[in-house]
Design a protein that fits this description.
By secondary structure, the protein is an alpha/beta fold. It has helices at about 1-25, 35-50, 120-135, 160-165, 225-230, 255-260, 270-275, 290, 335-350, 375-385, 400-410, 435-455; strands at about 55-60, 65-70, 80-85, 105-110, 110-115, 145-150, 175, 180, 190, 195, 195-205, 210, 295-305, 315, 320-330, 355-365, 365, 390-395, 415, 420, 430-435. Helix 3 (about 120-135) packs across helix 12 (about 435-455). The radius of gyration is 23 Å and the shape is globular. The protein binds ligand BES and manganese (II) ion (2 copies).
């Protein structure tokens, strides 16, 4: 497999330049302002897939942003890998915290800085380049189909129906995704689980209109105060979530499983230092690694109401709002949790306010097998290119479509990502190491090789 390194050495500057082209298109799926850019990115990705040598490349429409499809079918008796990635990115704001504009990628300290550099344009594009290398060298050992969607960051609401509709077209033996992290550049890992997500928005109404806080203050319910009290009631003093029946479906890990997962390298000191935290906090009885992977959480993502402009305005607001999300673990169901949240929120609301609750997107948690051919292929591929056996580790983030690949296509997923938790995805100054980008391109062909050999 010498050709892999030879190609990377020869063409790496072009690979990076091509990635920068994709990063310049602001494909923010959440913001209608960037609708055109999302369509343009799908177009650009389709060109990249064609240039790499994939066949039947098409931009397939959905009720939302399109899915880009491409394939190379070499022999129907060989296994088929379905590669999944997303071309949409998170909003870039707060813009003032970026050291360089989010959609004008720059390279600094061997890292590419841009929104989407790691999540997921950079990681998705590794697959396009790895396929280019395999195809150019006649070294693709099995069939491949690739889909790149444009709505992952807004919950993949249309993709579930899409894969159900195109079941036959997307039929595969395994799904391969690079949209997660490794522990460190010298500590490779394969992600073997993702948390689910239940995202809610609440509105609390006090008086029918904004009031003078002196004339009415003290006698009228303040909806912001009420909302804060209600949020405070969602966890107890041990950071245990107090929503009724919230933990009913949570699968507890055995002591052995917990012991194994806590053997992964982790330094609490470095963790605190990196985040400039004097201390951490979380559910009592669990370690940081456990709190961010095998345990569910609840967090306020945004809260607003009243006066937030310049200076001070004395006002007793009529309304308060919050976006509240819960990360879920097997076997919690996002739909069931949404209902439990709503019931609890209504139950704890003081009678003086009116509340309304709305569910945004959800996603189901997954655990992926470690005894499968595909896992072993990923393990061997990473061992080959990193020189170290990767550690299986459950991730804390969510990729909603993964559970549906299993439900609709009956296919398990391998989460072989190459990012780092410190890449600042979803944050200002998102970046992706050139080492990681090239290491991904180098590792992917080995996955194909070992998967086809062991299948
Ligand atoms: N790539 C991330 C998920 C991720 C990151 C998993 C790092 C594991 C480690 C993905 O793009 C993402 O951000 N997902 C959202 C899902 C949501 C918008 C439905 C998330 O986790 O918040
Ligand atoms: Mn992603
Ligand atoms: Mn993301």
């Amino acid at each position: 497999m010498d050709f892999i390194k030879q190609n990377i050495d020869k063409y790496k500057d072009r690979y990076i330049e091509e990635l920068l082209e994709l990063l310049r298109i602001p494909s923010v799926s959440a913001d209608p302002k960037y609708k055109e850019a999302c369509f343009a990115t799908a177009e650009a990705v389709s060109h990249k897939m064609k240039d790499a040598g994939l066949d039947n490349v098409e931009i397939m429409s959905t009720p939302g942003f399109p899915v880009v499809y491409g394939e190379k079918m070499i022999d129907k008796n060989l296994p088929t890998i379905l590669v999944y990635g997303h071309y949409d990115v998170q909003p870039a704001d707060p813009l003032n915290l970026w050291h360089s504009p989010p959609f004008e990628p720059i390279i600094k300290d061997e890292k590419i800085f841009a929104r989407g550099a790691c999540d997921d344009k950079g990681q998705m594009f590794m697959h396009v380049k790895a396929l280019e290398i395999m195809l150019e060298n006649n070294a693709l050992p099995c069939n491949v189909k690739m889909i790149v969607e444009g709505e992952e960051e807004v919950g993949s609401d249309n993709l579930g129906e899409f894969i159900a509709k195109y079941k036959e077209k997307l039929a595969c033996d395994v799904v391969l995704v690079s949209d997660t992290s490794i522990i460190a550049n010298d500590v490779p890992s394969v992600t073997v689980g993702l948390r689910g997500l239940c995202y809610m928005e609440v509105e609390v109404t006090g008086p029918n209109r904004d009031l003078h806080s002196g004339v009415y203050g003290g006698a009228v319910p303040n909806p912001i105060n009420a909302l804060c009290e209600m949020i405070a009631k969602m966890k107890d003093e041990n950071d245990y979530i107090t929503i009724d029946q919230f933990y009913d479906d949570v699968i507890e890990l055995s002591d052995n499983e917990r012991k194994a997962m806590n053997e992964a390298p982790f330094s609490l000191d470095d963790y605190k230092k990196d985040l400039k935290l004097a201390d951490i906090r979380g559910e009592k009885g669990y370690t940081t690694l456990e709190r961010t992977s095998i345990r569910p959480t609840i967090d306020v993502n945004g809260i607003w109401g009243g006066y937030i402009g310049e200076g001070a305005k004395t006002v007793l607001p009529s309304k308060a709002f919050a976006k509240i999300s819960m990360r879920l673990v097997p076997n919690q169901s996002s739909e069931k949790i949404a209902k439990l949240f709503e019931d609890y929120f209504i139950k704890i609301a003081p009678p003086s306010v009116h509340v309304s609750v709305k569910a945004h997107h959800g996603g189901e948690p997954v655990v992926t097998p470690t005894d499968s051919v595909a896992y072993k292929a990923a393990e061997k591929a990473m061992e080959t290119t990193f020189g170290k056996k990767p550690i299986p580790q459950r991730g804390g983030g969510s990729i909603p479509i993964v559970a549906l690949f299993e439900a609709e296509l009956n296919a398990k997923t391998v989460l072989m990502g190459f990012g780092l938790d410190s890449d600042d995805i979803h944050s200002p100054n998102e970046h992706y190491g050139i080492f990681n980008f090239l290491k991904g391109i180098e590792t992917i062909p080995y996955f194909y090789k070992y998967y086809a050999e062991m299948f």
